[in-house]
Amino acid sequence: AVVMGNLPYNLSSQILVQLIGARQRIDRAILMFQKELAERIIAPPGGRDYGRIAVMLQYCAAVKPVVDVKAAQFFPKPQVDSTVLELDFGVYREPPAEDETLLFQVIKAAFGKRRKTLKNALSGSELPIGAPLAEAALQQSNIDPKRRAETLHVNEFVTLSNCLSHMLGN
Fold it and tell me: Which residues pair with 6 in a beta bridge?
């Protein structure tokens, strides 16, 4: 199945999360987003734009820009430019997440306090882990506990969540 649409800009992130959850029934999606959100979705690690939605989507889809659409091309003219993105959900990541729910919780926790180190962000989150376990999981995953979430590649998040899954006995 293919999903196409011009999403309401105020609901785009929530709709993306729903599409991620339903991706077993969706081959690809072609969607128009506010340009700023599209830039955050395709952002690579290391920059301000890279965040939770980028990691989640890049985990389960190949994302590529199709076309930019200027505000002047609409009537009535909106106040923002737009970008059309193609999301191919036929991507299989190596290594796969052993527990996707935990992966998405780890991503949420890591970005929940962007200014904190990963160790502090994870141990101060809703996850059932304290600072010693967070540090042990990060070290076992070969991730410096002093790094911040925006520096981790998708595969590092997967490795970390898989390690935490084993440590928590999931």
Answer: 32
